[in-house]
Amino acid sequence: MSVMFAIPKTWCLLGVLGGAAFLLGCRPDYDDTELCEKKPSTPENCIEDGTKGAVVVRWRMADVSLQRLLQRGQCCCNPNPSRNGEDRKQCGEFGTSCLDAPAWLVENVRLTLTSDSTNPTPKRYVFDIPCLDGEFTTPYCIEPELFDMQLTADYNVRAKAGDPRFICGTKKAASPPSVKRKVVKGQSTNLDAIILGVNSP
């Protein structure tokens, strides 16, 4: 037996077998074929074994063109939506609830951890995280050593006039340069709150 259910902007199929439920898969309820890659993911080399540490990161978006910092969890803006096009499904922040600036949409942010270049066997961890979360703690799977840490994001823009969709843009969100932090066994290392900027010149 299978059951279809909805979570925000997504449809999921839940299977039931022998009294146990399992997730068969999810798909967005809008056209995502031309959006930037957005599947949340955890690196294969992220393996918890009691000898490693974790990293915590928090972020907010800012509209550079308006010099405005947005509230945590706001990851899109569509001030002039179409009447009933895909853009309204892709981004629910529109009209008077949004800023008067070019439309944009960020679905995922990417946390990249790269071990210090002096390490003879450098390690790299890449986590793709839903932007709406606003905060993320990695599993305790990071080797305890010095890392360069950076948060980045691709962002989508409105398609050309007459095409009511968001499509992947050619620019990344403005982000601070990487910073060095040491990961400690059994502890979570805090990466400073990050501001990612859209609509930069």
Total beta-strand segments? 15
What's the SSE pattern?
EEEEEEHEEEEEEEEE
Mean pLDDT: 85
Kindly name the structural category.
mainly beta
Distance between the termini: 53 Å
- Using the CA coordinates, give the radius of gyration: 19 Å
- What's the helical proportion of residues? under 10%
Number of helices: 1
Flag low-confidence runs: 1-8, 10-16, 21-27
Write structural notes for this entry.
The protein is built from 1 helix and 15 strands, in the order E-E-E-E-E-E-H-E-E-E-E-E-E-E-E-E. It is mostly beta strands and 201 residues long. The strands form 4 sheets. Strands 4, 5, 10 and 15 form a 4-stranded mixed beta sheet that branches. The longest helix is centred in the middle third of the chain and has 5 residues, at 86-90.
Main attributes of the structure:
201 residues, 4-stranded mixed beta sheet, single chain, mainly beta, disordered N terminus, 1 helix
Brief write-up:
The chain is mainly beta and 201 residues long. The protein has one helix spanning 86-90; strands at 2-7, 10-17, 20-28, 54-63, 68-69, 76-77, 104-105, 108-115, 124-130, 135-137, 146-152, 154-158, 166-172, 179-182, 188-198.
Q: SSE layout and pairings?
A:
Elements lengths: L1 E6 L2 E8 L2 E9 L25 E10 L4 E2 L6 E2 L8 H5 L13 E2 L2 E8 L8 E7 L4 E3 L8 E7 L1 E5 L7 E7 L6 E4 L5 E11 L3
